[in-house]
């Protein structure tokens, strides 16, 4: 643990926390159950969140910004999408502070209710033709609520999962939480793929609303599962320490500035790179290349399946070489593939586009798979929820407007070019690669939990 002067980092002469007398013994079955509960809730969170991204590319530009030209409408829709990323750091700070003070479990229950409700309400929202400018305003407000909730969800779920696991298994079980992203993508892409078979008139009238309304029953299932998850044993032990100082509102900034900066950079590729290779590619392929929108959405389904496979293997491989090093090499691979991937996309062939999306998302997922493990090992337990949440979501805020930036730069040229997307992907990948290697030398050692096997 850290002392009042701030968190101490493994690699700087700090001994592992915990001792034989205060070890908490867990069995593998219970750890898997907790990790599964964290995964299910996170899958719903990302289903709701990614659904908005697809709708921004395919629906909102036409139904909520109808008084703008095609490029301006796409930019406005992506700007609304990006607003959620700006709310995420605030949500990370609020939920993280509560999670470090009152517990991981109750805060995660609040976050899942908030995002499920906000998403369902989007499905009930009248469009611009019905209520005019109030429609995009209401859409933006609901997106802000989504962003606040997601800001507290991922960091809490990751913290809960790793704090139930012994150190040698943390990369594996942290990757279970990461599975929520591709599963949520798969669910949202599949939902849109199903309604896109409708005639355009019916799709615009009510079809696009169905995936959003589905958030209500999905919320009920996820909430039931999450209610059955126990509080983190590490947090429970912190509460039992009579001399443990209360976490201050800004302690994570005052005492954890260095690990927080590393965390932001480490999370950059998993968030920003994904939205370049998913959300922006959907818009670019349909509006610039003229590819049928349903075919591109189907390509994102294939990429989500690839992502699931990569996460499973990366989580296990990270136990051998360390999550930070694996993150670094994943970033280098993504940067090396950037130009070849967009060369495939620019052919306009749906087969080439599908291959490019799968390869691009697959390569950046190597880094994304271990993001939870890397970030959680940068902070001591009393700052972990706040630090992990803020690191991830500040990265989200910085990278959330990448589709908007790429669209704006593309619109500045006489002939549409993918050069902006290539450059952005390379920069983001190299930032995360550097952070991964640095993080591998700056790990907080926390061995309170041990396996019974």
Can you walk through the features of this model?
The protein contains 20 helices and two strands. By secondary structure, the protein is mainly alpha-helical. The protein has a two-stranded parallel ribbon with strand order 1-2. Helix 2 packs antiparallel against helix 19 and helix 13 packs antiparallel against helix 20. The longest helix has 36 residues. The two termini are 25 Å apart. Keywords: Cell membrane, Membrane, Transmembrane, Transmembrane helix, Transport. Its main location: membrane. One of its GO terms (cellular component) is plasma membrane. InterPro entries: MFS, MFS_dom, MFS_trans_sf, Sugar_transporter_CS.
The biggest beta sheet reads:
2 strands, parallel
CATH architecture: Up-down Bundle
Order of helices and strands: EHHHHHHHHHHHHHHHHHHHHE
Distance between the termini: 25 Å
What's the arrangement of strands in the largest beta sheet?
1-2
CATH superfamily membership: MFS general substrate transporter like domains
**Shape annotation:** globular
Structural class: mainly alpha
Under CATH, the topology is which?
A: Growth Hormone, Chain: A
Helix % is over 70%
Q: Mean of residue pLDDT? A: 82
Q: Unreliable segments (pLDDT under 50, ≥5 consecutive)?
A: 1-21
Question: What count of structural domains?
Answer: 1
CATH class: Mainly Alpha
Tally of DSSP β-strands = 2
Global Rg: 21 Å
Can you count the helices? 20
Strand content: under 5%
Domain Major facilitator superfamily (MFS) profile: 34-444
Subcellular location: Cell membrane
GO cellular component, one term: plasma membrane
Keywords: Cell membrane, Membrane, Transmembrane, Transmembrane helix, Transport
